[in-house]
Design goal:
The structure is a homodimer. Chain A has about 250 residues and is of the alpha+beta class. Chain A is built from six helices and 13 strands. In chain A, the strands form three sheets. In chain A, strands 1-2-3-6-10-11-12-13 form an eight-stranded mixed beta sheet, sandwiched between helices. A three-stranded antiparallel beta sheet of chain A has the order 7-8-9, with no helix packed on it. The complex binds magnesium ion (MG) (2 copies).
Amino acid sequence: QEISAKGDAPAGNNSRVSQIMRFGFPGLDNVRTLKDYVISYDRRNRTANWVFEHLTPENVAYNEYVDRKHCEFVEDESFHPYHRARNEDYKGSGYDRGHLAAAANHRSSLQAMGETFLLSNISPQVGKGFNRDAWNKLENYVRKLTKNHPNVYVCTGPLYLPRKEPDGKTYVKYEVIGKNNVAVPTHFFKVIVMENEKGDFHLQSFVMPNQALPDNINLFNFQVPVDSIERAAGLLMFERLPRNRLKYINGKKI
Amino acid sequence: QEISAKGDAPAGNNSRVSQIMRFGFPGLDNVRTLKDYVISYDRRNRTANWVFEHLTPENVAYNEYVDRKHCEFVEDESFHPYHRARNEDYKGSGYDRGHLAAAANHRSSLQAMGETFLLSNISPQVGKGFNRDAWNKLENYVRKLTKNHPNVYVCTGPLYLPRKEPDGKTYVKYEVIGKNNVAVPTHFFKVIVMENEKGDFHLQSFVMPNQALPDNINLFNFQVPVDSIERAAGLLMFERLPRNRLKYINGKKI
Ligand SMILES: [Mg+2]
Ligand SMILES: [Mg+2]
């Protein structure tokens, strides 16, 4: 189902899902649809494979009745107890409970914001210098795109990137926390597609390491080719985006 | 669709799939059905999440026309090039191309055996002491169960198990090989359900480390509770097995 470029308010949840997923699913593993975002869950790592959001000027606008002070982190009971992350896994780990679909992107209702506090939408993130700083800056940047784009599509997820070690071999290595071994991603990605009033698209893709980054970073230094994310994450991004309307990639006219 | 306990020969492929998957799918991520096995593929790690087989006296019986010397390892073109393992990834890695669904379990036709050589069904395995020895011994053990069980169901897959390091934290760490970063699992599991002539079930579950093991190992020392596999792999095993007919678990009457 196609939608207009005007960011019409969603009708029922089915139509909202087709709005959010307008350009295709990056993968189909353990998909759940929430009020205002869609998630694919990685039962082995106890965090998402990806979450998908559709930001409009309306759903990011300030709303005095929708505030994160009313929200609580809760385990996602739609998954088997064997595969759930729990609040106690994070306790004492040194990591923040970092949102993938950001709370402030979902101000249309308290339910919409509340659902971003499901632990399936949470990853262990370094707090100071990352979740509260560099990553937050990227989230703010994405939200501001709605000021001159009626539709902004965002896919966010964790990465577990390989690294060459002194023995000459390459390894994937990541910490796991708590009794339920919740994976601490080495990096996070965001792939963003914004649509302007003319119906032209601009794709930007970012990868940031899950570590304290300097205050004065330039977000655009973290842009990467989207295929590097697709390969590393095992996903395919925006497959149904009409290529003839994709005019810019990472700021470059194509 | 229920089948008899007599191991009737399969009719079409649809009916074969429902025979193989009689007790449910462990997960639904990137499932492909082949002639004589079913696979779920992990596009991030370039190897399977799990493969499922249904062994009968017929499909493991010697057949002079079906021999692995006619088979070749080939990349699985049903997956996007970004997510495929390739033969050159294994070259010079020091690892064998180890079958998950064992070639010798699929002697009903050359096509059936040939499909076990798809690289989606292959994981990097230590050759000497593991693929060619301990793991092979486990595969032989499973095949021999068909001598007194008309139906043997086998789910096999990789594990990436966490380990505590000297810093007191717990990490998942595994090598990746080749240009396509094919994951080298730290362990492999097999969950086996055998059905006897009376229609009673016996479940056995094994985890073996991907390393050279001594010649004289006792396979039964590698038995583990099935839930430890379900938690670590992010899967659910044999959910539709009727619990009142499950009489033995890992050799113990229940
Ligand atoms: Mg955050
Ligand atoms: Mg083998």
